[in-house]
Amino acid sequence: MKRCDKCGVEFSGNLDCCPLCQSELSGDATPPVFPRNEVRKSGAIALAVLAFATGVCLLVMLFLGYLLKLPGDIVLTVCLGLVVNYLFVRNIITHTPDFLRVVVRYFLVLLAIAAVWFLVSRNLVVTTFVIPGICLVALVFDGVLFAVFRGTFVTTYAKYLLFDVAFGLIPIALTALGLTTWDVLALISAFVALVFLLGMVVFTRKQLIAEVRKLFSA
Hints:
By secondary structure, the chain is an all-alpha fold. It folds into three domains: 1-34, no CATH class; 42-95; 98-217, no CATH class.
């Protein structure tokens, strides 16, 4: 065990400097008392990737707004929504022990709220921009968490991921029913959903099949 001669404190783990006074430690390193929290380590990676993905989504939205001459209020609303989503999910990952389950359920709740909003208001903006936007953001965040946690994410949350894939196809159905005024976001949402499903089938096929069997056998 390493020791700080200045503070008189012993430390387990592979430390070089004292966390209290930054002096060099003496002695031999010993294994830490508590195992390393790999989920939290992966959570830190997920935060960095989510920040990057959110930035990319913001740039894409600004580019589409300029290219397609979208109304400024719509572009601004979507961008603010992306930022708020990132901050909320970041807070979940940082402070919630079982953050994966909370993140996945969060997007399902957002979709439910949007559905109620449309049923009450019959505003086509909800079906044209809000619902496809939520589906896209959810799929992007799922893709990031899937890449970071790989098979563990599928094994634990397969049903939620399959729900997100199904919901990602809903905007196409809304377009077919004539409930949208612009079908680009619906098409993009369906494309991303199918790509995400393909990724799960190719890279985590065994875990996915096992979880699907559990769902139908329960």
